[in-house]
Amino acid sequence: MALKHILLIVIGRRPSSGYDIVKDFKEVLGFFWHAGHQQIYRELGKLDAHGLVRHTTVPQDDRPDKKVYRITDQGWEELRAWLRSPTQIRTVNDEILVKVYAGELLGCEALRRELEQDRDRHAEQLRVYREIEATYFSTPTDKEAGIFDHLVRIALRKGILSEQAWLQWTEESIATLDRLEFRP
Amino acid sequence: MALKHILLIVIGRRPSSGYDIVKDFKEVLGFFWHAGHQQIYRELGKLDAHGLVRHTTVPQDDRPDKKVYRITDQGWEELRAWLRSPTQIRTVNDEILVKVYAGELLGCEALRRELEQDRDRHAEQLRVYREIEATYFSTPTDKEAGIFDHLVRIALRKGILSEQAWLQWTEESIATLDRLEFRP
DNA sequence: TATCTCATGTAAGTGGTTACATGATTGC
DNA sequence: GCAATCATGTAACCACTTACATGAGATA
Among A22, A56, A84, which residue terminates a domain? Predict the structure, then answer.
């Protein structure tokens, strides 16, 4: 139920076209949520149909026309209601755990390889997050930074701590497997 | 795409009714994946229709009849193919981060309250996981334990490490907010 | 008398992915 | 000449949730 409200937040902050929002999701907004362009356009269409946003078509020179969406009073109301409502928690559901569950079928070596791959992917993601942190947030106690920068930093910290935990788990689990040595 | 394969793993290990599997999901299997009974019955129906499992109706005294599912050769083949295929990674998409993103609209106090609630939920989940670890896996280097017990323990460790990271993040973020103090 | 367990499902809706589709302009 | 960027979408499918539905026997 959150994509709808992210769009309201984004459009509420600043009127945007679908494409603008697609770009936002590829940048900082991506720390908070992931969504593809098809989903975004479909959801914008629905919000428009329900009167939570409305669009004006803006013609451009040398570029395709674009639809610029603006939030309506009804949209603000919906957003405020959502912000006040209880936050949903996520379920687990990670495929790597299913492969662990199938460990007896996979065998020790194959499972080890899966975990190594997982470890490498999370190590790479952690490296990326740390690089971003170092580049954009070099002075952690910067009094000049706006509220929004601090909020982005909080999200980034979530990414870093999660990836660290994943990494630790994969390393621990590989070590456990090495002590076990079983065949499929 | 994993539920289908979890069902094949479970049924492959031991022929089961839908209800048996529902119970499994409420116990250890729940560490690996979450699914409701509706999803399970529907998916079993599809697997049956596609010939990956087949069922026999078993009448019972004083209880409703049950359908016991068995994996077919085609089912085994599908499962082996999936186990060999690359593991998918999950996207982020947690509502609490969206509320952080909307921090300026929520205001410092309200956001703080959300984070506190999140912290408490994760603290409780961590407590539960640790209790299970202490109860069922009191002797960590138990040579008597089967492979499956070790695999369950690996999954449980994933839960513990994740919850610890979450907890650390919420505490850090609350501390950050306390240094900021902004209004909606 | 009421709730829990056993045992099965349907129906409707939301959310998300994959693939397909178009077409001009800008930069290497 | 080829890829990327700008800008929009449709169609089909898969995954998951919420609500509704039935009915017998066991336990408190």
Answer: A84
Lowest mean pLDDT among A38-47, A99-108, B173-182: B173-182
- Rg (chain B; Cα; Å): 22
Q: Do both B109 and B175 map to the same domain? A: yes
| Radius of gyration of chain A measured on its C-alpha atoms | 22
What is the mean pLDDT of the segment spanning B86-99?
94
pLDDT tens for residues A135-164? 887 765 556 678 999 999 999 999 999 999
Domain enclosing residue A67, as ranges: 3-84
Q: Please tell me chain A's helix, strand, coil percentages from 3-state DSSP, rounded to the nearest 5.
A: 65, 10, 20
SS3 of residue A65 by DSSP: strand
Residue A77 and residue A101 in one domain: no
Listed as ranges, the nucleotides of chain D within 7 A of a protein C-beta are: 6-11, 14-20, 23-26
Which residue of chain A comes nearest to B158, CA vs CA? A169
Please check whether residue A95 is in contact with residue B88, taking contact to mean a CB–CB distance below 8 angstroms.
Answer: yes
Contacts of B103 in chain A (CB under 8 A): 147-148, 151
Residues A30 and A80 in one domain: yes
- Tell me the C-alpha distance between B54 and B38, whole Å: 19
Q: How many distinct structural domains can be found in chain A?
A: 2
Are residue B79 and residue B103 in the same domain, yes or no? no
Tell me, yes or no, if the pTM score tops 0.85: yes
A residues 163-182 lying closer than 8 A (beta carbon) to B: 164-166, 168-169, 172-173, 176, 180, 182
List, as ranges, residues 37-66 from B with C-beta within 8 Å of A. none
Q: What is the pLDDT of residues A101-117, one digit of tens each?
A: 999 999 999 999 999 99
Asked whether residue A115 falls in the same domain as residue A63, the answer is no
